[in-house]
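Marked as duplicate of an earlier ticket. Keeping the data here for the record.
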Amino acid sequence: MSDNKNKVEKLLGPSAIPGLVQKYLMEEKKLAPNLAQLLKAVVKKDTGNGYKKAFHIRIFDEDDAVARKIHIKDYTSLDEHAAMIIYDGWYDEIEKKVKLEQKKDAGQDTPILTFQQIQSGIEALSQPGSTYTVFMARGPANGGPLGRGCAVVELTPPVAGKKVKKYTIYTADVVDNQPVNKGSKVFDSDKAKDVAVWIKNGHQERMY
């Protein structure tokens, strides 16, 4: 006969945050509903207290994992990546109890800039090579408080013997609220207004 005590628990992969925990996050932690639905959870059974439906839970941002190039397979994957954990704790489905400790900001207080603010930030660039960064909720990059990295506007440095446009626009992954690098070039333009329009289309409340 096999000894059940020696069985290794098969941990589940990342999934949506359980409804009980979502409710707790919104009511007790005042987490925005869109983030309660967007963030991911990994769990493992709590076997030490005799509970039948109790679980340890860690909550993280899957887009943050992509930006860091880290694959989160299950609960234990975050043992070595504690900086990615937003909430850490425990819940019991039978007792309807939840206890979570917030480990870092979930990004919900990130200010959403107006079109005029974005245009002014671009126009304020004065030194060739200087940059202006705006977090994005839409686009090809990952990470950051709005989920889709950032747009980076550079005041294009002069190139000998070549006419260049005033601004060069990139998108970049974001880790710990900083661009990972300059990113990938999207387009260039002489008009701050056109650049601001493009950025504002992707700079909004987080949707996914």
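See parent ticket for discussion. The radius of gyration is 22 Å.
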